[in-house]
Amino acid sequence: MSDFNTDASSDQILQDIEVDKEDLHGVSDIVTFAAQHRQSILDAPAVLQVRNLSKSFNGLKAVNDISFDLHQGEVISIIGPNGSGKSTTINLISGFIKPDSGLIDLDGASIAGLNVPDISERGVARTFQNGRVFGGLTVDENIALGFHKRLEAQRPFKQLQRYPVLRWLPLLAETAIALVPGPKSRQEKRDVAERVEREVGRFKERLGNRRNDFTYTLSYANRRRTEIARAHISEPKLLLLDEPTAGMNQSETAEVLRQLQHLKAQGHTILLVEHKIELVNALSDHVIAMDGGKIIAYGDPDTVRNNPQVVEAYLGKRREPHRVYQAGGQKDVLAKQNAIGASDAIATVHESSSKQDTPKDSLLSIEAIDVYYGQIRALQGVSIEVPKGAIVSLLGGNASGKSTTMKTILGLKKPAKGKILYHGRDITSLSTRQRVKSGIAAVPEARRIFPAMTVEENLLAGAYTRGRGADVMSDVAQMYDRFPRLKERRHQQAGTMSGGEQQMLAFARALMSHPDIICMDEPTMGLSPKLVEDVLEQIVQLRDQLGVSVLMVEQQAELALSIADYGYVLQNGRIRLHGAASDLLHNPAVQEAYLGGPIDE
């Protein structure tokens, strides 16, 4: 791949992608252009060839005899319900999981079974489903790490690193060069700095003034942007993106879409896993739909998204509308957020009978808290009340203070001002452990299950404050009754399960502590539309069947308000709006403060 230089033809492609609709000759021209581009891609050489690839976990076929080709300059998206094998496929190609059988060829050379560094050295770069950056490094340092495999002058004898007995030689040489750099290594450092500058420039408005900040201080969306830049800086032959816009709102998703369209116009080869179907349609040359570890459809985006088998797999079988939720909301919320095709599977809702502006009979109260990160004030005078047996949604754009509020409630951040009351008792100075013992549980962002532990070990970890006994094992049995899929996988390592299954486990683990309130951070992140509906139904059941209160941070504002009793909208660390969820749902000020425009704006 050339050094980000584009010729006239790629510039024209980019112009065709981003030009205003009124400047086009019509929809037919767009369709014709896409079809011609799709056909020309198929005539290009195959960068990736997958043949009869299979992988099982404890007898469960996660990937079952799949085959496909990815051509140079082509963008293929893999869609399908959670547990269909999408991320497992990405992990097999990138070397994080070894295949049981099948072939994976990159530029005609086999990479199946190679370790991660070897596959990366051959030109594969990736992002991860839940986002992985080095929190103790700055944005620039994180991005620069993506080019480490391409270094020459600063990594003499790097080919010896694969031999354990000789591994000390390249490490010693790299240390010496870092202490006393020569002309070539100094020039290489300058080259890397220029590349980092270019990558940051892709997200200049978002990352430009955060380059020297540690990434743990960034919003979730900015961490994802940093990860994309880190993957791309090495100019890989194959770029693997696992749900790059998970946790982003509509305007942020549109921004990332434009960046990916730019990469496509430059001729990058991309394999994408994504649940946001409108992004898939706008970006992909071809789409692979998976279910049960198998490929059930392949073709252009419109053909696949309208395939009846795909619609059924992704949204579930059609059924008559029924009432699932008990709080304020609107019809077709999921259809608007995850458009893949019309379906009657979307649950209907009715308005909350409560019309109070603020909740009463509080279980948890946050009173005028200020929270700082160094000199930066993340929360200013924030007050929130969570009633007994209610669902409260905490809304706001990225970096608005939602996760900081959650961390403060859990004791992970100490407020500089204000207090937190729980059951009327001041718990501001209590440790996280004491708060959990008192009945405050958490389902953290990106689920944070223990990947190397089994499902049952994760559940037992949720009851660590209670000790071990017959009552704990009885609760484990109840969790298996509530989440039958977990019982099927009780001895499986949690890290090998799908995102939806891990979310079920995170719910069940939180319930093992017998909480009065559960704080949930982005519970629907990275889930397919059908599983989003299932998760929302489970949240409502926590309230209606178990009497558990829920404080929920959620990027999808309409989804959150569709099941909530009350809502608060944060903006720049302050509460801008609050009131009954049914009132906020149709309040245009919420859209102004939180929701972005549609993805194609």
TrEMBL record:
CDD domains: ABC_Mj1267_LivG_branched (cd03219), ABC_TM1139_LivF_branched (cd03224). Residues 48-317, 364-597 form the ABC transporter domain. SUPFAM superfamilies: P-loop containing nucleoside triphosphate hydrolases. One of its GO terms (molecular function) is ATP hydrolysis activity. PROSITE patterns: ABC_TRANSPORTER_1, ABC_TRANSPORTER_2. One of its GO terms (biological process) is L-amino acid transport. Keywords: Amino-acid transport, ATP-binding, Nucleotide-binding, Transport. Belongs to the ABC transporter superfamily. This is ABC transporter. It comes from Bifidobacterium apri. The lineage of its organism: Bacteria, Bacillati, Actinomycetota, Actinomycetes, Bifidobacteriales.
